[in-house]
Amino acid sequence: MTNLWEDLETGPNPPETIYAVIECLKGERNKYEYDKDVPGVVLDRVLHSNVHYPSDYGFIPRSYYDDEDPFDVLVLVEDATFPGCVIEARPVALMKMDDDGEQDDKVIAVPTEDPRYDHIQSLTDIPQQTRDEIDEFFATYKNLEEGKEVETLGWEDKQAALDAIEHAQELYQERFA
């Protein structure tokens, strides 16, 4: 059985074009996580706060970030896909975040195969309302979970996202190759 974290390439041309393995769906409160030991997507929990994912959310294969997890990616989509879906995506920004004292940044990407996102090439192309909704979600989604503290730390440009993906690939190679 294929392990989507270890067996799938980071992308066809990383860091400029990556694969995003979707775990959580736009509009839902279910927090799914890919379990490499199963391997498959399992329900981790239902979000305690009355919020929902602003877009499809998952991880980048063969990546490992400073929070000791695969690198997170939020893919802007019009319609939710499904847990385990692999989306070819183009990184356009990086949202900086601290989760319980650990750096837990999020790559923001758009699908390469959806012409509705062809015009989004960088952070400044993402509508301010969309950025505000993403920031609000990540700033509040753990508010009702006991002992959890999350802080969003602002936005960085496409180059910062590409650099962070390369960093996550290097960490993966150091730790698992």
Automatic annotation (TrEMBL):
Record: residues binding Mg(2+) 1: 67, 72, 104
Subunit-structure text: Homohexamer.
TM region(s), chain numbering: none
Enzyme class (EC, first level): hydrolase
Species of origin: Halocatena salina
Molecular function as annotated in GO: inorganic diphosphate phosphatase activity; magnesium ion binding
PANTHER family: INORGANIC PYROPHOSPHATASE
GO CC, alphabetical: cytoplasm
Amino acids binding substrate: 31, 45, 57, 141
EC number(s) from the headed UniProt entry: 3.6.1.1
Gene Ontology terms: biological process: phosphate-containing compound metabolic process
Keywords: Cytoplasm, Hydrolase, Magnesium, Metal-binding
The protein's name: Inorganic pyrophosphatase
Pfam families named in the record: Pyrophosphatase (PF00719)
InterPro entries for the chain: Pyrophosphatase (IPR008162), Pyrophosphatase_sf (IPR036649)
Catalytic activity: diphosphate + H2O = 2 phosphate + H(+)
Residues noted as binding Mg(2+) 2 in the record, renumbered to the chain: 72
Annotated compartments: Cytoplasm
Keyword hit for Zinc-finger: no
Cofactor(s) listed: Mg(2+)
Free-text function comment from the UniProt entry: Catalyzes the hydrolysis of inorganic pyrophosphate (PPi) forming two phosphate ions.
Similarity field: Belongs to the PPase family.
